[in-house]
Amino acid sequence: MKYKLIALDVDGTLLNDDHKLSPENREAIAEVTRQGGQIVLCTGRSPQNSIPFMEEMGLAGYVLGHNGAATVRVEDREVLHIYGLDARGLDPYIDYCRARDIHYDVNTAFDMYVDNVANLTKEATFMYEHFRITPASLPAWEDFREPVVKFTVFTKSDILDEAQREWSTWTHLYNIVRSGEFFVDFMHPDASKGNALMNLASQLGIAQEEVLSIGNYYNDISMLTYAGLGIAMDNSPLEVKAAADAITGSNNDHGVRDALVKYCLS
After folding, report:
1. How deeply is 93 buried, as exposed, middle or buried, from its count of CB atoms within 10 A (0-12, 13-18, 19+)?
2. Domain limit, last residue, from 167, 187, 207
3. pLDDT digits 0-9 by tens, 57-99
4. pTM score
5. Residue 23 belongs to a domain with what CATH number?
């Protein structure tokens, strides 16, 4: 098989709009694995709520979570690499969100914290239930025992657009990426899906031209451009499609299956 390492985004790529894994995608992934390809999930999700998809597919290996800020081994959940960010530098952004009643969360490799878990809005509660993750209340920075790897802002898209315009005028220390219509993620400046995928490929002795990646959103661009073959989903924004080498079907039409059959199994 030409491609030895296959990196898949999760939401909007591997999963359909109901956040389900289709039998068609599952079967294609199983066949790629049988033929020697290694699947890695490269996602904005936490390892906590992305590893279960690897287990559902019967896969070992790795998850590149939090947009590449945390690389975790599936079998024992050992954190192999993290990009820890400057948490205290988040204070102005937290003040901005609090002043405008914008929801945010703070993430370590496996844990998530919100301003006050007792005061979650219905929208935030639904989101966390939907993504199968349970947040705790945010402690003081000095009480953290593990590095913070991601800060995520969640709100309506127009409010998020305005916030990004405002933040673009600030001096900041982070890689700030739009990871969904309603989400913006802050990470260490070197944290990205592309860098995490490059590091993993190097550790596994896999050449860049032997890496294939599939994604659908702005936070996927770095891994699409790193991979020997970067494939955008048909449901991607135009800028993401422009960064890719090829386009496959949408996430609701088993686009991952189609790409794997065409480029890995033919």
Report:
1. buried
2. 187
3. 999 999 999 999 999 999 999 999 999 999 999 999 999 999 9
4. 0.94
5. 3.40.50.1000
